[in-house]
Amino acid sequence: MKRLHLLAAAILTFNLVQPAQAGTTFDTVKNRGFVQCGVSTDLPGFASIDSKGEWRGIDAETCRAIAVTMFGDAKKSKLVPLTTQARFTALQSGEVDVLTRNTTQTMSRDTTLGLMGAGVNYYDSLGLMVKSSLGVKSAKELNDAAVCVLPGTTTELNLADWFRAQGLKFKPVVLDRYEEIVRAFSAGRCDAITLDRSALAATRSNLGKAADYVILPETLSKEPLGPMVRQGDDRWFNVVRWTLNALLEAEEYGITQSNVDEMLKSTNPNVQRILGVTPGLGKNLGVDDKWVYFMVKQLGNYGEIFDRTLGKKSPLELDRGLNALYLHGGIMYGTPLR
């Protein structure tokens, strides 16, 4: 009898230490027939609506890429605009399946929100911008300055940390939406505006003459941006994570939107596996073996998406910088699809 009690206790202990059962987002998305992604309310280069009413930007394209992985069709995606304060609640509650919103990956977000980062689609950093007429050349000249900032962001925390580390003070002007802090900055309610440097570049391009604004040289923090999903949802996490890696692997192997059909004839075993010529790549994800082929055919590889949303073929004309492949001096490194 004692042995039975010990056995029961052992089984109970074993069960208690097992990982939480994976969530059901994969099945929910499959049954619904489309992916719901949380994106920015209006951030050029990442997620904004163009003159034709279409969402554009690297975060919008990341959502579409996930839709291709799941359904083979980029159009089976729905973008839900979310403020910085609403984004985590929307994901936690199931209002969206994934945040493909410019969201910084941090330890506290992975350990306190019930959420987790699934990879990085843009390496950024925090900066400050002022009007040229202010005559400021360095952020260190901004003691006691009023700074427009969004609430509930790493930007707000990192800004305070940087000023404290420099022994400087500032007056935060906190507004809920990106559009509001831009208007406040334009109207002179604050001396400076702080955003990720890519967002500052986008903002400057929309405000008029670039010479009227100066992005100060200091880098205030690291901001690795990427999608987030709910914890305990391993199958869905894998879909999002490997979608990002597939875009990078396609670029590394020279698979582009224009040559993807020709690349089906490649004798390179890596290319054959990536494009589904050699079967098996989709099985463990629960998707079609040719998911990467469909993705590149419809959207292009990571480099092509970058170029038209943030890079040389976009209004922002940002350099790849850290977001270049590791082969070309950047730190973008796709985990092997094998």
Briefly summarize what is shown.
It contains 13 helices and 13 strands. It has helices at residues 2-16, 25-32, 58-71, 87-93, 107-112, 154-165, 178-186, 197-207, 234-252, 260-263, 269-274, 291-299, 302-309, and strands spanning 35-39, 48-49, 55-56, 77-81, 98-99, 115-117, 122-131, 145-149, 170-174, 192-196, 213-215, 221-225, 228-230.
Structural class call reads: alpha/beta
Secondary-structure element series = HHEEEHEHEHEEEHEHEHEEEHHHHH
β-strand percent reads 15-25%
Low-confidence stretches: 1-22
Q: Give the strand tally.
A: 13
The whole-number mean of residue pLDDT values reads 90
Compute the number of helices: 13
Main sheet record: 6 strands, mixed
**Quaternary:** single chain
Cα gyration radius (Å): 22 Å
Q: Distance between termini?
A: 50 Å
- Fraction in helix: 25-40%
Describe the structure.
It is a single chain. By secondary structure, this protein is an alpha/beta fold. Helix content is 38%, strand content 16%. The chain has 13 helices and 13 strands. It has helices at 2-16, 25-32, 58-71, 87-93, 107-112, 154-165, 178-186, 197-207, 234-252, 260-263, 269-274, 291-299, 302-309; strands at residues 35-39, 48-49, 55-56, 77-81, 98-99, 115-117, 122-131, 145-149, 170-174, 192-196, 213-215, 221-225, 228-230. The strands form four sheets. Strands 7, 8, 9, 10, 11 and 12 form a six-stranded mixed β-sheet that branches. The protein has a three-stranded parallel β-sheet with strand order 4-1-5. A two-stranded antiparallel sheet has the order 2-3. The chain is globular, with a radius of gyration of 22 Å. The N and C termini lie far apart (50 Å). Mean pLDDT is 90; it is low at 1-22.
